Amino acid sequence: PNKLFDYIHSGVPVIASRLPEIERIITTYDIGAFIPGHQPAQIAQTLNEALADEVQYKRWKKNLKHAVQELRWEEEEKILLAIFERYG
């Protein structure tokens, strides 16, 4: 989903559901946490825990800078062009 990349490029740690591709990105770059369910209390608890852990929050913010360098259009463009050249 585009929102995931919007958050990353805005430097905002991500709190999300465990959808496969979202989970892969958040876990690979260590840039956020997962909500255990979709009940408002579960979402609120996850947000409160994320904001309460200042060390973790700072780590996520630092890791976002690395994620932005790899998860940007210029990098994806190279991959797409290589595919087009190979099969086009």
Fold topology:
Blueprint lengths: L1 H9 L3 E3 L3 H10 L2 E3 L5 H13 L1 H17 L2 H15 L1
Parallel strand pairs: 1-2
Q: Characteristics of this structure?
A:
73% helix, two-stranded parallel ribbon, 88 residues, 2 strands, Rossmann fold, mainly alpha
Give an overview in words.
This protein is mainly α. The protein has one domain: Rossmann fold. 73% of the residues lie in helices and 7% in strands. The protein has helices at residues 2-10, 20-29, 40-52, 54-70, 73-87; strands spanning 14-16, 32-34. The protein has a two-stranded parallel sheet with strand order 1-2. Helix 2 links the parallel strand 1 (14-16) and strand 2 (32-34). The longest helix has 17 residues, at 54-70. It is elongated.
Question: Which band does the percent of strand residues land in?
Answer: 5-15%
Q: Largest sheet, described in full?
A: 2 strands, parallel
The gross shape turns out to be: elongated
Mean pLDDT: 93
Count of all domains: 1
- Strand line-up across the major sheet: 1-2
Terminal Cα span:
27 Å
- CA gyration radius, whole angstroms: 15 Å
Q: What's the helical proportion of residues?
A: over 70%
How many strand elements? 2
Helix vs. strand class:
mainly alpha
Secondary-structure element order, N to C: HEHEHHH
CATH class: Alpha Beta
Q: Assign the CATH architecture.
A: 3-Layer(aba) Sandwich
Looking at CATH, which topology would you report?
Rossmann fold
How many helical stretches? Answer: 5
CATH superfamily: Glycogen Phosphorylase B
Low-confidence stretches: none
